[in-house]
Design a protein that fits this description.
single chain; five-stranded antiparallel beta sheet
Length: about 170
């Protein structure tokens, strides 16, 4: 396994637990092999020593000198547009989706369940149609072939409500 993210000056890290959980910080200096001096000028984290155990390294690296002042870190942060880049990552989107799901009410969960049922019913219906079409093409015509029953169209109001709830 080859490591791609190293602890270095300017490395942006995500705080996974503790009082500042869920915020981004930049590593300003390495204190020892267990702790680093971090600063989050645009995320509301003041300069402090933080253990590596509660940080997860990201792919973003800022360019600033070792033990730089907060002003210098802030300029580098804003120049690189770290907040926008972070919001665009799959990691951030997954965290946001997890939080959104946790905040759902009972009625929201019910609407999602109904939308999923409707979607699965439509998919199942279309798959059956495709299977019938493929089985007819593969068969040789027989003498007494039963005509297909006319298929019932789904109720339009329910389908529209389910599609709205799904979005």
């Amino acid at each position: 396994m080859v490591f791609k993210r190293f602890v270095e000056i300017g490395r942006v890290a995500f705080i996974s637990f503790g009082p500042h959980a869920g915020k981004l910080v930049a590593i300003v200096d390495v204190i020892d092999q267990n702790r680093a001096l971090v600063d989050g000028p645009c995320s509301g984290v003041r300069r402090q020593a933080m253990p590596f155990k509660c940080m997860q390294l990201t792919d973003f690296v800022l360019k600033f000198p070792h033990s730089a002042r907060q002003k210098c870190v802030r300029l580098a942060w804003e120049k690189e547009n770290i907040n926008e880049k972070w919001a665009a990552t799959r990691w951030a989107k997954k965290i946001e989706a997890r939080e959104k799901k946790a905040k759902m009410t009972d009625f929201d969960r019910y609407k999602v369940m109904k939308a999923k049922k409707m979607r699965n019913r439509i998919i199942k219906h279309e798959m059956k149609k495709l299977q019938r079409m493929s089985s007819k093409k593969g068969k040789k015509p027989e003498k007494s072939e039963k005509p297909e029953k006319p298929e019932k169209a789904p109720k339009s109001e329910k389908a529209q409500k389910a599609q709205k709830a799904q979005k």
